[in-house]
Amino acid sequence: MSLPSGFADTTTADALPLHVVTRDSLAAWRSAQPAGVGAWLDAQGFDGSPFSAITLPGSDGGIAGAVIGVGDMLDPFAYGHAPYALPARAFALAGELPADARNALQLGWGLGAYRFTRYRQPLRAPAQLAIAQADADAFAQLAACVRVRDLVNTPTEHMGPDQLEQVACEIAERFGARIEVVSGDDLITQNFPAIHAVGRASHRAPRLITLRWGDESHPHVVIVGKGVCFDTGGLDLKPADGMRNMKKDMGGAAHAIALAELVMARKLPLRITLLVPAVENAIGPNAFRPGEVVDTRKGVTVEIDNTDAEGRVILCDALTYAAEMQPQLLLDFATLTGAARIALGPDLPALYSNDDRVAQQWFDAGMQLRDPLWRMPLWRPYVRYLVSNVADIANGGPSKMAGSITAAVYLDRFVPPTQKWAHLDVYSWNDNDRPGRPAGGEAQGLRAAYALLKQHAGV
């Protein structure tokens, strides 16, 4: 297999030794090194702190190797600083790491080496990790995370509903999946009126993208992703700072696409259906308005309290359609609410589920894989915040209370009680550069979702 950015083959690379230490293991490691190494570390003040790195001097004035300090050795991001903290040459792991730590190193190195290069090249190349054998599962997960980052980082001009469709078509062709697309006014005739209402004002037609893959005898999982390719807020216009990064409002779709692609790449014994309602929430003469009543596929009428709560409106049609298929499991990803960020911050997606076992499995996988998320209560009494005087339900209300919960309760209205379902409210974004996490698009809860699906596949 071809190696991604930041990696080299040990058979071809002139690699220097790379030592991985923690604060606790540094003393034992340095006691086995020549005396000059210890003196060099002391002179540089290197103590094995997390996210530290240092090169070791050679007798000829060159570099003899490198040492990186990590904290949690099972956290991929613990290694994410290394590719740009070290010189742009190849390094090979010296000594042994447990298999799970070695996999975390490979995944974290790839995440740290990532830069979005569509419009400009980085100022320098990353250091390369020379490996004898790539861990196929770790590299597939790395590719999925890179897929999310690339999709989210791409501006809407080049990643609108039509380009999302193209990405899905390319993936389907590669894995022998089937693609169905309902777009424009066909959304009305085929009973997806809510998707149409939100996206009708854009010059690019709204659509529902469906990808189907897998053996009919395998457990069926439907994965839904919110694909609002840009969100102006609609007629309830966002302020400039709130609109600035709204190319990321298709982050849920990016996660769903990447997860489906990962399942197919690893050939999990599952039958998957990917659903992406893809729209732009634009302003125009036919933009949907506050106070309108929108029909939905389920037959539930929705009063539009706020056009900036559009994601839940497109998702309700997609979730209804997903539930009609009666899958064993229904997952959805959405950059749904700012309230989730107020509650849990940018790094911790909010998990809602109507099934305790599914929620616990996803949560436990996140903790084990250092891909964390946090379960929030699907507190149905808060539906009182979505009461409409003219329709069955409103998409919002005047209260600022429990905004993330009320959004999940709204979605719950469109999922049958017997359908196992989990919803992840993701930020999909890094506001600032951090080790392994460059500013821009980010995958969150994706690796944990993959582990959840492996459990459901029995592998």
From TrEMBL:
Pfam family, any one: Peptidase_M17_N_1
GO cellular component, one term: cytoplasm
Domain (Cytosol aminopeptidase): residue spans on this chain: 306-313
GO biological process: proteolysis
Key words, A-Z: Aminopeptidase, Hydrolase, Manganese, Protease
InterPro entries the UniProt entry points to: Leucine_aapep/pepB (IPR011356), Macro_dom-like (IPR043472), Peptidase_M17_C (IPR000819), Peptidase_M17_N_1 (IPR048816)
Molecular function per GO: manganese ion binding; metalloaminopeptidase activity
Source organism, top-level taxon: Bacteria
PROSITE patterns: CYTOSOL_AP
Metal-binding in keyword set: no
Residues annotated as signal peptide: none
Family the UniProt entry places it in: Belongs to the peptidase M17 family.
Protein name: Leucyl aminopeptidase family protein
